[in-house]
Specification:
With about 525 residues, the protein is an alpha+beta fold. Helix content is about 35%, strand content about 20%. The longest helix is centred in the first third of the chain and has 30 residues. It starts with a strand and ends with a strand.
Length: about 525
Amino acid sequence: MTVKTSPTWWVRLPVAALSGLLAGFAALAVAELVSAAVRPQSGPIVAVGGAAIDLTPAPVKDFAIRHFGENDKLILQLGILATLAALAVVLGLIALRYRRAGSAGVLLFGVVGAGAAISRPDSTGTADALPSVVGAMVATALLYWLIGRLTTPIAESDAVTGAGWDRRGFLISATAAAVASAGAGALGRYLNDMRGQNAAASRNAVKLPAPASAAAPVPAGAQLKIPGISPFTTPNNAFYRVDTALVIPKVDATTWRLRLHGKGVTRPLSLSFQDLQGRELIERDITITCVSNEVGGPYVGNARWIGVRLADLLREAGVKPPSQGGPADQLVARSVDAMTIGSPVEDVMDGRDAMLAIGMNGQPLPFVHGFPVRMVVPGLYGYVSACKWIQDIELTTFDAYDAYWVKRTWAKRGPIKTESRIDTPKPFARPKAGTVMIAGVAWAQQRGIDRVEVRIDDGPWNLADLADQDTPDTWRQWSYPWKAASGGHTLTVRATDRTGHIQTQKRTNTIPDGASGWHSVFITVT
């Protein structure tokens, strides 16, 4: 009996590559299942992705936000998966020649994932390494087994439809591995989703109390009836999201607690969600802005927030602002995923409506926007004020501690700049000649908008019509009816706030303290 020991190379190589991919898939699927027993954030994709975000230079992060928007995390995860797939293919090919070495190479996945998981700021300990380690061990065994099916010799008399290898055994093993991996991954995802059910139930049970200090009704003239202009109040599902969380924290409001402590705190506080609900609540319309918002960008929105005055809590804890002799000039807020946001104590306690918000547009906070509690501070960019999923407030100094974004070259203080944006017509629009309505929004939180001007090409500045102002903490809509002539035209807008400051023409990047410059759009009138 003659024996053929191996198939031809053009069969061996793609099958070995497939073996590597199946092993990589198994590693991720098993890790997903094990993470359900640990915590969702311990999975290798989330852990490695979080580490990648932390290590990415600020200009690269800014580029990702500008070009991918709220899909930046999806792009990152797809990039990680593509990299893992490529490595898995390489290991499969190596295992074809060096079966043990190639198979053992899969353990590198486990080392990298485990290292990333236990080094995360929110790590709960060595248990976070388990998903990556167990997933890698299963994948190592699987690759060794599959490569064994590829290199197992068979009798030539049985090789009529084969190529000198155990094709049937490989197909059975590969199919079983794929099905089992898919099942493990699906079960892991289901169990991880189940972990959030208590949080969802606690949110559904929240009934927002009537505020002791309700927001005044929005003036009827604050919303212009112009197609294409941003709504005065941004719906929750359309509100921008910029954060570093690859997995949205699902926090159970019934077990949530906030700790307030640190320098100058004479009476540390520990508060439950029920404690906050039972306190005097305020309701305010406040526009918030992300420091990554480019000139004319989308990362700004206006909502009606309800919450507890942050200054009241600080005073109850014995905190004094620096202007009154307090030793702490920075408030460091920490979220459940270990994000740190540093805010100037003076700004938080200067009388503005800084709050720990529990509601947004008449509803409990959505999970994506910080349920159960987040910070909102008018007049400060989000990176120094808008801590979502907050669980800890520490009073310290700017000299003693650099928060997350400050460590990555952003400025320590981030007052919002006076800005304006053209919402309609859109760039490269082709309106017909005649009256074209140019419209948009302008904002200068804490100062308010006094004037908006529009320029056509290099012509003179023209006063726009302003919608009614709600409060100085909200954006203001504006419009300008233009007698448009045929041809290409550049439309430019600038705003003046109520201190008399005119929006600067000087273009700056978002780093280190927010973009500046005039917003322009080019259109062609037909």
